[in-house]
Amino acid sequence: GPDVITLLHRPGCHLCEEAFRRIEPHISGFRAELRVVNVDTDQVLRERYGNEIPVVFLGNRELDRNRIDPSRVQTELSRLSRSH
């Protein structure tokens, strides 16, 4: 199946909205699915990440937190697609 990129966010978080806008265009050329998760709907996530959002994962591996680097996401997706 597609690689899953998870963006942990909180509604109203400007960094989270910016991360979404910056990541989304980078995944279109890959077999990737962007999953957006509100940390406030999960007590464990809320306690673990608090205000250190947004957080981006590729699969189970954390790629970035707070200020997201979309080129890092693209690089990791490229690396993964070559290994498939």
Give an overview in words.
It is a single chain. By secondary structure, this protein is α+β, with helices and mostly antiparallel strands. It has three helices and four strands. The chain has a four-stranded mixed sheet, with helices on one face. Helix 1 (14-27) packs parallel to helix 3 (70-83). The longest helix is centred in the first third of the chain and has 14 residues, at 14-27. The radius of gyration is 12 Å and the shape is globular.
Overall SS class: alpha+beta
The neighbouring-strand order within the major sheet is 2-1-3-4
The largest β sheet comes out as: 4 strands, mixed
Low-confidence stretches: none
Q: Approximately how much helix is present in the residues? A: 40-55%
Average pLDDT number: 90
How are helices and strands ordered from N to C?
A: EHEHEEH
What fraction strand? 25-35%
**Straight-line N-to-C gap:** 10 Å
Number of strands: 4
From the alpha carbons, calculate the radius of gyration and give it in angstroms. Answer: 12 Å
Count of discrete alpha- or pi-helical segments spanning 4 or more residues: 3
Global outline: globular
